[in-house]
Design goal:
By secondary structure, the protein is mainly α. The chain has a two-stranded parallel sheet with strand order 1-2. The protein starts with 5 loop residues before the first helix and ends with a helix.
Length: about 100
């Protein structure tokens, strides 16, 4: 796709630009954050205050519910940053889909 589709290549540049925009916004936020797009938090220089593996293990072991896990960051004053821009490949960016469109 990278070699054959200009649309796909452009989407990569757009997604990169969107991650950088989100990272700049996160960098200006005071305190700890947890980003849906983890790269945005990393580029913003924010630490990872939540260990996702540990959270998954707590649920798997029955020591916490998904609702408990969702409430933990907020209880610690950690701000959740949702994904607001496209930052990755779309579900329809496959070679076969592209091939069918050029036929």
């Amino acid at each position: 796709m990278l070699l054959l589709s200009t649309e796909f290549r452009q989407s990569l540049y757009t997604n990169e630009h969107n991650v950088l925009i989100e990272a700049k916004a996160v960098a200006m936020m005071p305190g700890q954050t947890v980003c849906f797009v983890r790269l945005a938090c990393r580029l913003a220089g924010k630490p990872f205050p939540v260990d996702e593996f540990e959270m998954d293990e707590l649920v798997a072991a029955g020591k916490a519910t998904p609702a408990d896990i969702s409430a933990m960051p907020e209880a610690k004053g950690i701000r959740w940053i949702p994904k607001t821009l496209t930052t990755g490949a779309d579900a329809d960016t496959s070679f076969l889909r592209w091939w069918r469109s050029v036929k």
